[in-house]
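FW: tagging you since you asked about this chain on Friday. Here's the raw sequence from the shared folder, copied in full. Didn't touch anything.
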Amino acid sequence: MGRYVNDNLIDTERVIYETKLHWITFLSLKGLFTLFLAPLVSYLTSEFAVTNKRIIIKTGFISRNTFEMNHSKIESINVNQSILGRILGYGTIVIMGTGSTREPFDRIRDPLAFRRKFLEQQG
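HL: got it, structure written out here
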């Protein structure tokens, strides 16, 4: 389990599902130009979790970006996958919150499982 997620759980909250970025993150020009250090830092410092109360997403190392939203405030989670994404098992999740919030997260490992675990928590 990720350190950020673990440190920010509230009472009676437990992690249901956790995932990371997909290895495809390393195959980019950014990776090539930085000798794969930039994708490695992104891979190691990104956390995506579904708990029994909310969704917690943390990206970044020096500049940290966090996204936390209670289940009741999420209208839907959309999954976008290219043909290559379907074959290799990665995609983009777009979290649609109440009030027209729209948060996309790219190159997530097994995005359909992430959405399925969220929907299971919705009941």
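FW: The chain has one domain: 3-122.
HL: agreed, and The longest strand covers residues 101-109.
FW: great, closing this out.
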